[in-house]
Amino acid sequence: MRALAGKIDEVFEFVQKYIKENGYAPSVREICKGCEIKSTATVFTYLNELADRGLINKANLKNRAVSLKQNVTTVPLIGTVAAGQPIFATENYEDFYSLPSNFFSGEDLYMLNVHGDSMIKIGMYEGDKIVVKKQETADNGDIVVALVDDSATVKRFFKRDGKVVLHPENDEMDDFVFDNVKIVGKVIGLIRNL
Amino acid sequence: MRALAGKIDEVFEFVQKYIKENGYAPSVREICKGCEIKSTATVFTYLNELADRGLINKANLKNRAVSLKQNVTTVPLIGTVAAGQPIFATENYEDFYSLPSNFFSGEDLYMLNVHGDSMIKIGMYEGDKIVVKKQETADNGDIVVALVDDSATVKRFFKRDGKVVLHPENDEMDDFVFDNVKIVGKVIGLIRNL
DNA sequence: AAATTTAAGGAACAAATGTTTGCTTTTTTC
DNA sequence: GAAAAAAGCAAACATTTGTTCCTTAAATTT
Q: Alpha carbon B139 to chain centroid distance?
């Protein structure tokens, strides 16, 4: 029997290609045909092994229940926040974007539109969208989203002399100093389209 | 019979949620349970209608062969280009990213790492990744990727007096003027993670 | 070269699942 | 309010499909 070492890899690639093309997984018998394997039992074994290796997900006793490891995370864009409403209310979800998870990882991400030019020195421009990780604390130097007067503002965060300093990255603007400020996230990325 | 107008929408949402959570589509009977519908025939009808409306894809006679309309495009990141090699050789593909297609649409996209600070005035920083649409021509003012000395460079494009001007967005740098330059793409977006 | 292990195949089984048909209930129309 | 249309249900049917068991062939070991 030809232990063509790459046979199982061929199955893996076939599954990937099939799912990409069709949006759903191939059946065991379709894999047989696609990879010229004679027995469904063989493919069945391969699929379980691929699942063991962590290359695919597979549910038992369900048809076509094979899926690839997710490489996207779906993230809501939070639009204009209605006054007095909690910022994360689903009513504020303006749209959803599927971001590459090999780029933006972690739980509880959201996106915001950039308004104004207060962070222009680090390349955040009006119309850009920023990717934010939901958290209520921050370290010195982090770019954070803070809630000031019921609206979300993006600044660099410092804690100094017991006060919170929100520092715009714009030489023409001054620091904002507060006794206390509600942090709602840390900026971890930026997306722009031209 | 309660023609709860939203019933079919409920099915649609259930399918979306199920696929997102499991990576594969629900069976007709699972939809029955999830949406409290008594008959598989009802769900069957709904699914066909959703497919007719173009909201889902559905294959006949195949199990769990329902899929959502794609909202991501897979884009290769082109890494360091080997000398003398065509830039788009698959050997240069360093990684793949799934970008949201409601953001970056079109055929033949690729990504590049940003090197240097020649475009710093428009917020392109070292380490950023740019999204590029493959094309060999450009309009005045476009940000383009051009091939100079076998390596890809990003500049603003102008055609002036029959010459091609590649303009860095950096006050400390001068324009590059060429008789002819090979354009390999137009920059349509940017992604950064901090 | 025989014995053992490993990989693949064949065939049948049982479960899961899409689909059809006819009936019932609700809604709409006249 | 009766008739017609639409929507939903129930049950059965027919595939599709995952899974198992056992056999066969190849590779490896002894």
A: 22
